[in-house]
Known about the structure:
The complex is a heterodimer of chains A (227) and B (109). Chain A contains 9 helices and no strands. Chain A has helices at residues 2-44, 52-79, 89-116, 124-128, 137-155, 160-163, 165-172, 174-189, 196-226. In chain A, helix 2 (52-79) runs antiparallel to helix 3, helix 2 runs parallel beside helix 9 and helix 3 (89-116) runs antiparallel to helix 5. Chain B is rod-shaped. Chain B is 84% helix and 0% strand. With 109 residues, chain B is mostly helical.
Amino acid sequence: MKSNMLETRQPRLAGILAGLLALAVAALLALTVAQPLAQSAQSFLALDTEEGFWYVTRAAGLAAYLLLWLSTLWGLAVSSKIFDPLLHRAFTFDVHEFLSLLAIGFVVAHVGALILDSYMPFSIPEILVPFLAPYRPLWVGIGIIGMYLTLLVTVTFYLRSKIGQKAFRTIHLLSFISYIAVTVHSVFAGTDSALISTKLVYIATALVIALLSVHWWMTRRAKQLHA
Amino acid sequence: MKDKSFFKRLRVLMAAGSIAGFVGGWALLAQTDPSNSNDSVAMAQVINPTPTAELSPTLTATAQATVVATATATATLTATVTPLTQISTTTQTTTFTTSSQTRLRTGGS
């Protein structure tokens, strides 16, 4: 009986010792490797400078714009039934929804970094109420309106069964205005809009949306004529 | 079922891609911004150089001691030649030492 207890205790003790050893190794690694790595990452991303959050704001804004563009593009393609011969409608719809959620995530990061930024600080009312911002109020205000429209359109994904298909589609038409508002905000309020590469990105993305919108409108009109 | 797991993987891929793009863009902005680059710091140092060493009180004191020693030596040497010149040189030395001491106090504070 006693020897049995000893036999069961020994592996437990070994396990505790192994755990403690692993903890010690992890602490040693954290001190020797993780800390210098974190420091170099901090300096590489300029987090140790005053402009650190300003870079986060700009990068998150660009990422949000590109994701919103992709979501709008995907939505137009779904609505024009471009993917229908290749992919499941439910699958394409889910991708569209997920892209919108990702875009909203980056909008939150963009706005959050603006609040935390000490280089160009914004207060919460200046970020939430259009045209109150001290920096380019008109263009920032248009961006805020675009953000609310994007939120409204995305929320209706989850209220589809409650509000009905017709209301869902009507609200979804606001995504055009939302995309235009966000593009105008990006071009006229964005710090990086002066760069040729950024200008080219805006022109190319807007052109693709314009062309696909024309295709979508023609498809819709043809459908109405047939009906 | 197969579609769902594929979509899950695709979602992870899309999220990871977006985050990677965001971090990449952030690093690119941080590294290419002229106000944050090492080149601009170096350039600023070339345009507006900061003094590398200031004259410390010890250095000033040493310099003063040397001046006094030289002046005394000159005074002694002059004294052997003509007493009249010695007086004027000694006066000059005294004046010089006094002004050096004033400078030392100002610099040291």
